[in-house]
Amino acid sequence: FCCTKFHTFLNEMRLARVLRSAEAAVSYRSALLRTPETKTSTLANGLRVATETTPHKTATVGLYIDAGSRFETAQNNGTAHFLEHMAFKGTGKRSQYDLEVEVENMGMLFNAYTSREQTVYFAKCFSKDVEHATEILSDLILNCTLDAKAVENERGVIIRENDEVNDQPEEVVLDHLHATAFQGHSLGYSILGPIDNIKTISQSDLRAYIDKNYTAPRIVLAAAGGIEHEEVVGIAEKYFGNLSSEHNAQDMTPAGFVGSEIRARNDALPHLHVGLAVEGCGWTNPDYFPLMVASTMVGSWDRSFTGGANMSSKLARRCAEYDLATKYQSYHTAYSDTGLWGIYGVCDRMKADDFIFAIQEEWIHLCEHATEDDVARAKAQFKAAWLFQNDGTTAICDEIGRQMLTYGRRMYAAEADARIEAVTVSSLREVASRYIYDKCPAVVGLGPTEQIPDYNRIRGGMWWVTN
Description:
The chain is of the alpha+beta class. The chain has helices spanning 2-33, 79-86, 96-106, 130-142, 148-166, 169-181, 195-200, 203-213, 229-240, 288-298, 314-322, 352-369, 372-388, 393-406, 413-421, 425-436, 455-460, and strands spanning 38-42, 48-53, 58-65, 109-114, 119-126, 219-225, 261-265, 272-280, 300-302, 327-334, 339-347, 442-447.
């Protein structure tokens, strides 16, 4: 009798767990489907407006411009980033002092960033101040004075920033990876530009870049928070309606990937910084999500992680058990037509051979031995990361703006979830093999590089006897 009651109790507990799990799954799917609508409009001159209304009392509004270092030449590389600095140094209506005082008095936060394919200016403010913030943004990019004295002052700031970046090995390795993988193409240029260009970029260079690239068809005005779409469209028409409708930029030439290497030997550094990458895919490529799941499977690891020996990534466990590295990070950096899929790591100079071998073993595991559990775990981690990054009006606005430039539309969380969920073991193995197997990698070493294996040996590790 007692045994029967015990089994009945166990069955009830199992049923309760199943019901709770089913309820959580339904709640998760319902939450995805309840994502607020992203409304879009296009002005007569081609400028696009995209907004998402949320119950916040604040809002973020940003200008997302289809222009970055990829749209530069060897002669003016660094201009987009230089211009980002100059935008806050005064306009025809506001001196730098007036601008800073006005922004602080309104409690606003203005910022900007430049990437290889995009330039972004955004403001976070109270919902009632969205028009004011948008007017300031328009003033910054349309009426920037580019005063000669301010240009010279900012030149020194950017030179110091360049020095700081060059003191960050991870940034240097990633720049070198782009330079060697996309050599001969503007996608290989650094965002800050070479020091000689920084020293010579002039007021006329900056003005020419604005006239060529800051045109309505290449700009998205995105907003998220306590705003109404029709109101934002009216604001956009008011402050950007007279913007040029010309699409002056030249069509981007496809970026060809070159398997090659850069070894920047510096024995003064205590550790070796190494980067390996194969050609990835663009944002809109169907292989994007399988490659992102594959990158998540490889994961990241740092010696400070307490659970290194018990992490799901085989590479992380090997690094922890055999002290192969101090840290590593897998990544997939996507662009409009191509990308870099690879890994950055830091290791002892005498462990270079073992660490690179372990990386390639992990890549082979992806292609040949990835399991259902591996893929399910990576999909869950990738979904969580996708959702976590959209917390707050600034993150939502940023996603809307970037997706309007890359996809031409907003990809809702429900669609992203479905695309991630569609990745299976067989599809992941097939996609990973297509991008990794028998491909020439880009290899970068920074620091004491003498123990990095010969490139031909690393290239040989990209081939194996398939099942």
